[in-house]
Write a structure and sequence with these properties.
With 128 residues, the chain is of the alpha+beta class. It has one domain: Alpha-Beta Complex (endopeptidase fold (from Nostoc punctiforme)). Helices cover 30% and strands 20% of the residues. The protein is built from four helices and five strands; from the N terminus they run ββββαβααα. The protein has helices spanning 50-54, 70-78, 92-99, 106-122, and strands at 14-19, 23-29, 35-39, 44-48, 60-62. It has a five-stranded antiparallel β-sheet. Strand 3 (35-39) and strand 4 (44-48) form a beta hairpin. Helix 2 (70-78) crosses helix 3. The longest helix is centred in the last third of the chain and has 17 residues, at 106-122. The termini are far apart. The relative contact order is 0.18.
Length: 128
């Protein structure tokens, strides 16, 4: 397999680009030199070139979220390709944490709980 040297990063590294004043968009670097991220703009998890991911903004490297092998992290992120985007249940932060086997944050757990309760309360019961 051809390894692209487009980024000074290693597979499994967490990278981000800033948007807005305080927000960032996160992704996982692959051995192909691409970045896997979960994007509202693309309606889900996609693999993009660094240029597509950054849209002209500086790509910032973050410390690893775990001590997992980078190729394992990449594989976990790659298995999410095609999944839908959801601000509260499946966004770029969720993808990166999942790929590194990190536990959800309290905010992520709270959002999932509220959503599950909402689904339970709004579901129609089968009368048969």
């Amino acid at each position: 397999m051809l390894r692209l040297h487009l980024l000074p990063f290693e597979p499994g590294d967490v990278v981000s680009v800033r948007f807005g004043v305080v927000l960032s968009h996160y992704g996982v670097v692959t051995s192909r030199g691409t970045i896997i991220s979960n994007s509202r703009l693309h309606d889900g998890v996609v693999e993009q070139s660094p240029d597509q991911f950054s849209t002209g903004r500086e790509i910032r490297l973050h410390r690893r979220y775990s001590s997992l092998d980078g190729h394992l992290v990449e594989g976990r992120a790659r298995r999410q390709l095609g999944r839908d985007y959801d601000l509260f249940g499946s966004n770029c932060g969720h993808l990166v944490r999942h790929a590194h086997r990190r536990k959800p944050t309290p905010m992520q757990i709270g959002a999932a709980t509220v959503r599950a309760l909402g689904d339970m309360l709004s579901s129609k019961r089968n009368p048969y």
